Amino acid sequence: MILPIVQYGDPVLRTRGKPVEQIDDQIRELAANMLETMHAASGVGLAAQQVGEALQLAVLDISPVEDRPSTLKIDGKNVPDAKSAMPLVLINPEVELQGETEVGIEGCLSFPEITGEVERAQSVWVRAQTLNGDMIELEAGGFLARAIQHEHDHLQGILFIDRMNSAAKAALASRLKRLQKETRRGIRHREALVAETTL
Ligand code: ZN
User: Fold this and answer.
1) Among 13, 148, 176, 199, which lies 20 to 30 A Cα-Cα from 58?
2) Could you tell me the pTM of the whole model?
């Protein structure tokens, strides 16, 4: 099922995700819906907050991206084509940043048509649970490392605009304000509808 994607201005995007205690049918269904939603929106990553659930759960699929290379090791083994390991479902991920940093362009499904340069570590080490409950360790580099950092930030309530430099943020300020306003108006409208139907 394709879920509505939460837009900037909704407080759930600023909420740190609770750890997933048990990987049950509900979590499996949420992950499947998040994958479907991400693919339908042509995104490469989606965090639970972006579908309104403040949980430590994110999905990724970088396979549509042609021009930005990635590297991947799973449990110490080199995966020659990182795309072959997609999609990834990361539950309760721990992320450590490694190596140098680099600047790259990012977008976010919660910020339609807004992109900006963000400085990120070139590689990351990750330990996470999979949908089977297994623990996996990943080492990712390049674009996948960037995507993982972006999603891991979402799980802490951190957004890519927080990582932009002040000039970039200033340039986006009026668009962000407008988006925030629209989102809040939408939330009030939905709340009013709920109030009406529960009278
Ligand atoms: Zn995002």
Assistant:
1) 176
2) 0.96
Structure tokens that stand for 89 in this block: 């479902």
d(CA 107, ligand 1 centre) in Å: 7
Q: Residue 16 corresponds to which amino acid?
A: R
Using one digit for the tens of pLDDT, what is the confidence trace for 51-68? 999 999 999 999 999 899
182 is catalytic: no
**Catalytic, out of 53, 151, 182, 191:** 151
Low-confidence ranges of the chain (pLDDT < 50): none
Q: How many Cβ atoms are within 10 Å of 125's Cβ, its own excluded?
A: 17
Fold for 11-198, please state it.
Peptide Deformylase (3.90.45)
- Nearest 5 degrees, angle CA 120-CA 34-CA 10? 70
Domain boundaries, the chain: 11-198
